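[INFO] parsing input record for GNAT family N-acetyltransferase
[DEBUG] input buffer:
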Amino acid sequence: MHEAKPSDGIITLSPLRPADAEAHLAGEDERLVRWLSGEPATREGVEAYLRHCREQWESAGPLRAFGIRVGAGEVLAGTVDLRFALEALSPGQVNVAYGLYPAWRGRGLATRAVVLAARYAAGEGAGQAVIRVDPENTASAAVARRAGFRPSGRTHGAEGAALDHYVRDLHSVPR
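[DEBUG] output buffer:
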């Protein structure tokens, strides 16, 4: 597995791993369920997802799921996922999704994580990063704007839910 560990000196992104299951389960709250997963996690489901993430890293698959880690002990504060292939994307685009556990919110860590993830995606050949946000998720939209993304329209998902799109050109992002 290619060990990607982008860091800005405050946070480090590193591939999610099976040992992250406990921290993820402990950190999940109503906001993460509402905006990201749609239903509360189970141990079995989290462990299966983490195995899938590891397999994606090992096979250089289209999903690159990072843990957002803080401090010398690299405490898991949340996640940021890159999807290089998704039905809603055009060639060269990468989808960015992120979430922080409650104890870590309000410190600018999500913005840092999105910036680092965008740099990683640029290094992997992506030309544009896309963040899709429920219009009611104002905190996530604020992260997108602070990370240099600009609004680019609204679509409706498979179930009819509105999603505001934010995009960032990655051609000039330092790798």
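[INFO] The CA atoms of residues 95 and 151 lie 14 Å apart.
[INFO] shutting down worker
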